[in-house]
Amino acid sequence: MVPRGERAVLALVLANVALQVIDGAATFAGLRAGFAEGNPLLGWAFAQFGAGPALCLFKLEAIAALAVVWRLRTSPLAIPALALSAVLYTAFSVLPWATALAGLQYM
């Protein structure tokens, strides 16, 4: 049986991985629809490597960081860090992209 705290960390890691995948897909869809990337570092990477490869690289890096947090799951900071990450990603990435892409239907 998996300890309760470990289940919470696993759920938050999986939620954050899902947010990374959703953000990557939404970013790619937004770029194809003519929107610009708001992150200057990612914008630079798009210019250097192309949108697809740069997005894959950045999302794989983020997922690798989540794997590190999973390895540190017994830390008392693991749950708050993962929860904060999920809230911030939802508020500042997923929701803005969802709003922008939903607005395309009405154009």
Topology:
Elements: H1 4-32, H2 40-49, H3 51-71, H4 78-103
Keywords, please?
107 residues, mainly alpha, 0% strand, 80% helix
Write up this protein.
There is one protein chain. The protein is mainly alpha-helical and 107 residues long. It has one domain. Helices cover 80% and strands 0% of the residues. It is built from 4 helices and no strands. The protein has helices spanning 4-32, 40-49, 51-71, 78-103. Helix 1 (4-32) runs antiparallel to helix 3, helix 1 (4-32) runs parallel beside helix 4 and helix 2 (40-49) packs across helix 3. The chain is elongated and about 45 Å long. The mean pLDDT is 93.
Summarize the model shown:
The protein has 107 residues and is an all-alpha fold. It is 80% helix and 0% strand.
Percentage of residues assigned to helices: over 70%
- What is the CA–CA distance across the termini? 52 Å
Q: Report the sheet-strand fraction.
A: under 5%
Question: Whole-number average pLDDT?
Answer: 93
**Domain tally:** 1
This entry's quaternary arrangement is single chain
Low-pLDDT runs of 5+ residues are: none
